[in-house]
Write a structure and sequence with these properties.
The longest helix has 22 residues, at about 95-115. It contains 11 helices and 13 strands. It has helices at about 10-20, 40-50, 60-70, 85-90, 95-115, 145-165, 200-205, 235-250, 270-280, 305-310, 315-330; strands at about 1-5, 25-30, 55, 75-80, 120-125, 170-175, 180, 215, 230, 230-235, 255-260, 265, 285-290. Helices cover about 40% and strands about 15% of the residues. Uridine-diphosphate-N-acetylglucosamine binds next to helix 7 and strand 8.
């Protein structure tokens, strides 16, 4: 299959491109490069020994998107492009709604006109808000706490309506839990701009000496060690989840949603200790107050993805820390350095 990856130069996109190429699929990438580097795609080519067709295009640009569909014979699309910083979305809601929803609508209109109706959407566990019960199942109540989360939830609803109106669409939304780690080659990984918001990129920069110490956001949650618990999954497992979704689109008419997680909860302190094992040194931290909007516990019930897509997370948090550290220590300045 020839798969178009929007946002394909980013963290999840590059890892997904590697797995698709290694499985024998063709990959076309569109990316605006506002939050990613073309060098990342050269690394994908190095890992796989295969070529990636790249177009520097913003998904909201209808004419340019049309051009991409004219130029390539696309069978399916994985839509990853979008803004993703929670704090920024609270400060700039209109920019987030405009960009993320416009990108989805433009993409779907372009696909429809081109007769391509097989789509995998990058969604997020953020659509569960503060979950009533863990592990979280797909039909749990949905709620969001910020504009970024709303753009994911609205995107899913738009796709519900689209699949209802036109049954020739086959759509899978993947609700990611917390992706971490890097490709085991050490050639691609997460390359956050500025101060990382997420736990593992921050720990990696502490380990590399770029940040002084980790702030642990609260140790008074109702969890075994008092720190927040999440479902961290290796980005290579996540990438393979996209491959499984693409492979199963043909037998999933309509719009289906799947959790991609390990089913295991890991606390902030457990995550920090795993990273210490990977680096072989103690990492400084201070416990500070809770981060506003954070929840105590969030982890997936991944049964549906296993049953329908034949997908399961195989790698551990220790694997992810080892790979993240290989990437971080081999590329201290990220792709630009
Ligand atoms: C965050 C977003 C979520 C988004 C996800 C993408 C918020 C409130 N939520 O989720 O919408 O889908 O990233 O990956 O931003 N922590 C620290 N110190 C730090 C950073 C984090 O202690 O410097 C703790 C947090 O309190 C939390 C855990 O580490 O308990 C994980 O945090 P993070 O990596 O930001 O992920 P989420 O909060 O789950």
């Amino acid at each position: 299959m020839n798969v178009l990856l929007t946002g394909g130069a980013g963290y999840i996109g590059t890892h997904t491109a590697v797995e698709l190429l290694q499985a024998g699929h063709g990959v076309v990438v569109v990316d605006s490069l506002v939050n990613s580097h073309e060098e990342a795609l050269r690394r994908v080519e190095r890992i796989t020994g295969r070529e990636v067709a790249f177009h520097r295009v913003d998904c909201t640009d209808a004419e340019a998107m049309r051009g991409v569909f004219e130029r390539h014979d696309i069978d399916a699309v994985i839509h990853l492009a979008g803004f993703k910083a929670v704090g920024e979305s609270v400060e700039q809601p209109l920019r987030y709604y405009r960009n993320n929803l416009d990108a989805l609508l433009t993409l779907c209109e372009t696909m429809d006109a081109a007769g391509v109706r097989d789509l995998v959407l990058s969604s997020s566990a953020t659509v569960y808000g503060d979950p009533r019960r863990v592990p979280i199942v797909e039909d749990a109540e949905l709620s969001t706490t910020n504009p970024y989360g709303n753009t994911k939830l609205f995107a899913e609803r738009i796709l519900d309506d689209l699949a209802t109106a036109d049954p020739s669409w086959r759509i899978i939304s993947l609700r990611y839990f917390n992706p971490i780690g890097a490709h085991p080659s050490g050639l691609i990984g997460e390359d956050p701009q500025g101060v990382p918001n997420n736990l593992f990129p921050y720990i990696a920069q502490v380990a590399a000496g770029r940040r002084e110490r980790l702030s642990v956001y609260g140790d008074d949650y109702d969890t075994p060690d008092g720190t927040g618990v999440r479902d961290y999954l290796h980005v290579v497992d996540l990438a393979n989840g996209h491959l499984a979704a693409v492979d199963h689109l043909a037998d999933t008419p309509g719009h289906r949603v799947y959790n991609l997680g390990t089913g295991q909860g890991t606390s902030v302190m457990e995550g920090l200790h795993a990273f210490e094992r990977a680096t072989g040194s103690a990492l400084p931290y201070t416990v500070t107050g809770r981060r506003p909007g954070d929840i105590a516990v969030c982890y997936a019930d991944p049964t549906a993805a296993s049953r329908d897509l034949g997908w399961k997370a195989e790698l551990t948090v220790d694997d992810a820390c080892r790979d993240a550290w290989r990437w971080q220590s081999g590329n201290p300045g990220g792709f630009a350095g």
